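Hi support team,

I've been running sequence recovery on a batch of backbones for a student project. Most finish fine, but this one hangs at about 90% for roughly twenty minutes before it completes. I'm not sure whether the input is malformed or the queue is just slow. I've pasted the structure tokens below so you can try to reproduce it. Let me know if you need the job ID as well.

Thanks,
M.K.
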């Protein structure tokens, strides 16, 4: 494990060089929710507009410290003010877009339990947001690696709803989020390693595995038909090469087949004659990692994750589990003391000690 750095610093003025972290995963104090008792704290602004402006100062600073392929996962919730929702996440989204950020996802974090709520004339909020913001169109993103852990066996995109219940713990006054929330963001957005010569982050090279998702009855029927007709691995490879445009109605309307050799097209046609509509089952089997892109240099460092509102260091726990470097900033020495214990004492990583 690389040694985590805990900085006593304001999230808006970090003692870090430009372009030095690969990912920001964080949860700021919510607007007028908790008093953390530290000078300079965010969250006590008198209006939603002032709170949004303070968060924008943070985002400007994080843009500075992010590498060109870096991004931000920002966990924010809303709150009630004078009996109405303040609309905080929407305000942040709009201000960030105006400042040039790309909002790539508005992930909904749902939970089936939470703090007791005395309200009798509305429903208890059981969701928050995790906004994925990027400074650039090109950013590191490992959808396949994430899908292997949190997606369906078919390899289909797992979607933007995260159902994660809060962990019960001792430090609820510091409002920690679950380790799984940080782990998901890190799996998606932080490279495992970075080339120290050119900044290259290895990306997966994927190829169809040839395995079908046997939980689908259509897939099982397709496999049965292929077996009965004695289709070979070469037939199945031809189907994958020609793709969906050779199946069903698409065959009449699309012309995507011409790039394959005559032999591959002939094998695909044979398979189509046997399989009919089940042909398409063989075109979207889960993909596997066959290798990684490589820049040719040898010197590498682990990916670096920053949480500028580090609190009890939950992001650091997730980073350490994945052998990544953690940098946590917080204005509270008390928070850092808890984070230090969690990050350095074996068995203390769970909050419920
Ligand atoms: C919601 S908590 C973060 C909880 C964290 N995700 C965890 O799992 O423990 C917010 C933290 O932000 C810190 N904080 C408040 N204002 C800050 C500022 N301007 N700069 C840095 N940290 C700040 C608070 O001390 C508190 O620890």
């Amino acid at each position: 494990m690389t040694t985590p750095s805990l900085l006593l610093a304001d999230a808006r003025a970090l003692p870090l060089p430009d372009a030095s972290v690969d990912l920001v995963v964080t949860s700021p104090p919510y607007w007028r929710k908790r008093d953390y008792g530290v000078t300079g704290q965010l969250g006590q602004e008198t209006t939603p507009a002032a709170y949004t402006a303070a968060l924008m100062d943070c985002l400007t600073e994080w843009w500075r410290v992010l590498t060109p392929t870096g991004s931000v996962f920002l966990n924010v919730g809303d709150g009630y003010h004078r009996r109405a929702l303040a609309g905080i996440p929407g305000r942040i989204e709009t201000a960030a877009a105006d400042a040039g950020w790309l909002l790539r996802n508005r992930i909904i974090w749902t939970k089936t339990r939470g703090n007791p709520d005395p309200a009798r004339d509305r429903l208890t909020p059981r969701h928050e947001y995790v906004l994925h913001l990027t400074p650039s169109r090109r950013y590191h993103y490992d959808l396949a690696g994430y899908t292997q852990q949190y997606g369906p066996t078919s390899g289909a995109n797992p979607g933007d709803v995260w159902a994660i219940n809060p962990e019960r713990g001792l430090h609820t006054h510091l409002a920690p989020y679950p380790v799984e929330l940080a782990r998901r963001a890190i799996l998606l957005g932080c490279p495992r390693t970075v080339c120290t010569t050119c900044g290259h982050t290895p990306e997966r090279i994927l190829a169809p595995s040839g395995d079908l998702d046997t939980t689908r009855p259509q897939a099982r029927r397709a496999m049965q038909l292929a077996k009965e007709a004695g289709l070979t691995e070469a037939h199945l490879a031809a189907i994958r090469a020609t793709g969906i445009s050779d199946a069903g109605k698409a065959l009449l309307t699309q012309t995507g087949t011409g790039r394959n050799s005559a032999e591959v097209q002939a094998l695909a046609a044979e398979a189509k004659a046997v399989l009919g509509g089940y042909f398409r089952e063989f075109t979207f089997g889960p993909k596997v990692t066959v290798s990684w892109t490589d820049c040719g240099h040898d010197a590498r460092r682990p990916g670096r994750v920053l949480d500028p509102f580090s609190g009890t260091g939950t992001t650091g726990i997730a980073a350490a589990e994945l052998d990544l470097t953690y940098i946590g900033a917080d204005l509270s020495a008390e928070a850092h003391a808890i984070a230090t214990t969690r990050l350095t004492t074996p068995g203390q990583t769970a909050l419920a000690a």
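--
Follow-up from support: It reproduced on our side and the slowdown came from queue contention, not your input. The radius of gyration is 24 Å. No action needed from you.
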